[in-house]
Design a protein that fits this description.
Distance between the termini: 44 Å
Number of helices: 9
Shape: globular
Largest sheet: 4 strands, antiparallel
Strand order of the largest sheet: 7-1-8-9
Mean pLDDT: 93
Order of helices and strands: HHEEEHEHEHHHEEHEEH
Strand content: 15-25%
Low-confidence stretches: none
Helix content: 25-40%
Number of strands: 9
């Protein structure tokens, strides 16, 4: 068995026996033990009572975190003409059409969010097997297939987070950096939980939110009291 490092042992000891904390308590604990040599991301994982194999139980959506993610989002936009110019002016990192499709097909995916105008979807559709598994496929339900390219790019750059329930009903996302003030992290966590709560699908049966856990990139996780996290 591998020997645990001093930092790992200390973190595990700090988290031992602690569960179902308030959001505030969990955030404070995570911040106090995020001691990596880089600014760790604070991550949330939610176990939902849904079966994503059924269309009426799929959970997906988007939320604008009030204090941003702390991450520099790289945005790619499929657009032509005036809309391509609009995307560039709004701060998009990559803009293209067939050329961008070929780049992606060649294995280069150097972006965190993909946006497309509706007329580009016949091209983007060919990339479904590449972008879909990475949760990068543009979708009108989360505002990434749109003619309002400027607003979509600015939202992505400003801290908007997409979420989607994966196999097992788990939703996972980054909700800020360990360097954020505790109050800002708490606000982000509550905004994310609220958005997932509002995205409850019509086919969900029984308990919708089963478990919520917070962690930092390199640290242990801690469970959060679901009722307290959902309450305003």
């Amino acid at each position: 068995m591998a020997k645990l490092g001093k930092r790992t042992r200390a973190a595990r000891e700090a988290f031992a026996g602690k569960e179902n904390l308030t959001v505030e308590e969990a955030v404070a604990l995570i911040k106090a033990n995020a001691n990596a040599k880089f600014d760790e991301t604070v991550e949330i994982a939610m176990n939902l009572g849904v079966d994503t194999r059924h269309a009426d139980q799929m959970v997906r959506g988007v939320v604008g975190l009030p204090n941003g993610t702390g991450k520099d989002m790289r945005v790619a936009v499929f657009a032509r003409g005036a809309k391509a110019d609009e995307a560039k002016e709004a701060g998009a990192d990559i803009v293209g059409a067939e050329d961008l499709m070929e780049t992606i097909q060649g294995g280069t995916i150097d972006f965190d969010r993909c946006i497309a105008t509706p007329d580009m979807m016949p091209i983007v559709g060919r990339l479904g097997k590449v972008l879909g598994p990475r949760n990068l496929m543009p979708n009108p339900k989360v505002g990434t297939v749109t003619m309002d390219v400027k607003a979509a790019v600015e939202a992505a750059k400003g801290g908007e987070v997409q979420f989607k329930a994966e196999k097992g009903g788990v939703v996972h996302a980054g909700v800020g950096k360990a360097s954020f003030d505790e109050a800002k992290l708490v606000e982000n966590v509550r905004a994310f939980v609220s958005a997932v709560a509002k995205a409850k699908p019509s086919g969900a049966k029984g308990a919708y939110m089963k478990k919520i856990a917070l962690s930092s990139t390199m640290g242990p996780g801690v469970t959060v009291d679901v009722d307290q996290a959902v309450s305003e």
